Amino acid sequence: MLPQQSEFFAEVREVDRDNEVNRILWAFKLNPFEKLNLRFDATPEEVRKQYRKLSLLVHPDKCSHPQAASAFDVLGAAQKELNDEAKREVLNAVLDKARGDCGLGEEVRAERRKETKHDAAVALAATLHERGREGVEEDWEKTDAFHERWKLKARDVMAKSEWRKRKLTKRVRVPG
């Protein structure tokens, strides 16, 4: 490799590191899956592998970004939260609510049913699928489009939950 090429690739790698630090620091603060850039159905093994990969990328000794240490700490906290069974259980309950597993409000599944109620393409796919409409919806839930909608809904549910928690905490602290 020519010296100019190696310098170029070193700069590209540094830009990738900087971009990853920024992505981590700007990730939705209440969701450790987003901090680690993982799907919500990630296994503990996938969490471990992704943490290792990202931590090597943004490690303060390897990355010159001024906030690399903060990003590295955020990754560590996210991994710790996902490895804690009790916290993971609470997080999964919130994510299930956002997905629509609890039957509460207009979650992603309910919104999808409403949107596609009169969709001819979905109706045709349901007649052709061996499991009917249920099978079509299960297939849709494996797509990136579903996961992106689920992520946005989860942000909303988590933010509302955190707001309620802080409001209750403030009420309890204030003598009345």
Write up what this structure looks like.
The chain is mostly helical and 176 residues long. It folds into 2 domains: 1-83, Helix Hairpins, CATH 1.10.287; 103-176, no CATH class. The chain is built from 9 helices and no strands. Helix 3 packs antiparallel against helix 4, helix 5 crosses helix 9 and helix 7 crosses helix 8 (132-140).
Layout of secondary structure:
Layout: H1 3-26, H2 32-35, H3 44-58, H4 68-83, H5 85-99, H6 108-115, H7 120-128, H8 132-140, H9 144-173
Helix pairs in contact: 1-4, 3-4, 5-9, 7-8
Pfam family, one: DnaJ
Protein name: J domain-containing protein spf31
Domain J: 31-95
* End-to-end separation: 72 Å
Helix-residue proportion: over 70%
Q: CATH superfamily assignment of the largest domain? A: DnaJ domain
Largest sheet: none
Count of β-strands: 0
The number of helical runs is 9
CATH class of the largest domain: Mainly Alpha
Low-confidence stretches: none
In percent, how much strand structure appears in the residues?
Answer: under 5%
Pairing-aware structural class of the strands and helices? mainly alpha
Give the rounded overall mean pLDDT: 88
Q: What's the architecture of the largest domain in CATH terms?
A: Orthogonal Bundle
Approximate shape? globular
In total, the number of domains comes to 2
CATH topology of the largest domain: Helix Hairpins
Radius of gyration: 21 Å
Pfam families: DnaJ
Organism: Monoraphidium neglectum
InterPro entries: DnaJ_domain (IPR001623), J_dom_sf (IPR036869)
Protein name: J domain-containing protein spf31
